[in-house]
Structure formats: C-alpha cells, structure tokens
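Handout, page 2. Input:
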Amino acid sequence: MKIKEIKELFDKKAINEVEKTIDEATQTVTSGRLERIKALFYLQHTGRFRENKIYKKASFDKYLLDRHLMTLGTYEKEKWAFSKHLDESQKRGPGIISSIKYKCGAGNVKKVLSEIKAAESKRKTPMPREKIQEIIDKNSKPVVEKPRKRPIKAFERELDGARATILEQGQTIKELHDQIGKLIKSVNEYKPYKSMYAKLLKAVGPVAELLKAA
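Output:
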C-alpha cells in the first residue's frame, strides 16, 4: 500500500466523496459480518462443520477458532446482536450493541438505542463516539464488586495449620485419656480398703466426727 497510488485515487475527489467511499466500505464489512454469522450459525445448528474432515471429531468452538479465528464468545455476542437488533447492528456494528447489552442489560438495549437516536436527531453533525458512550454509561448497571478469591496458597497454609492443631489436640486428648485410665485404676485399687477405713472411723468415735468436720 503506497501513498503515491492512494493519492492518485483520492486527490481529485471532494471530502464528501472520500467519506462516502469509507461509509460504503464499512457497510460492506458489516454486511459481510452478518453473512458470516448466518453461515456459522447454520453450521453450528446442523453440525455440518464436521463434514470438514479435519474437524470430524472437534467441538464447534474449536472449529470456530481454528478455522475462522473467532472465539465462541465473540460469535455468541455477534449472533445475539444481529438476531435481536438487526437494523441497529447493521448500522452501528454488532460490537456496540453487545457493549450496551453487557453494560446496561439485555432488557435495556432498546431504551438506550432510543436515547442515542434521540440525541443524534438533535445534531447537525454525526455524534462523536464519546457522546454515545456517555449515554451508555449513564444507563449502565451498578457495578457489583465480586469477592476477591483468596489464593490457593492461603488455603493450603490454613489447611496445614488445621492439621497441626488437630494432631496437637489429638496428642492432648490421648494424654488425658491415659491419665483418666490411671485414676480409674487407682480408684479400683482403693475399693477393698474403703470398708476397712469406714469401720476404723466408727471405732474411734468423736475423733471420727472431728475428722469429718475437717
């Protein structure tokens, strides 16, 4: 693409003629995108993309990316835009329609487009993109911050700490269990002397009472 050759094409044309060339090319590109989405939707719906032997066992998103260099997300956005708002998608491109849907919600796309058209009707010149963006931003849904996901390493550290605590507590429980076992054994060993001790207390009389009070 050499500037000298390009100048020969446009130097003698008025600015409105040059702009018309750009507008027509843009419309052709948009029209081409619509036809592309139609054909891709057909292949997805019928499964005929697998007739291409290379993709006989492939998923549609793999076929889409490998063969047509398009992600499934982009395809779904453009398909939605052309399906729901054909005229506006052809006029403005499916990208801006998808942007309105993403920021304002699918149910508000028609309302936002109406506001954009109303603002455009009051102007004598094309509305700048930043003005369109202002209308979109004004109608945007509140941004809800998603809770930050903690790094997996943090969970691993907590898990290791919990394991250590369990092991420590397990050791403590085992020690308590052993002590209780020893006490029970001691009590059982003391039982034969219990009746003998009671008789002795009874025999000493008043001394026993003093011992009890003590």
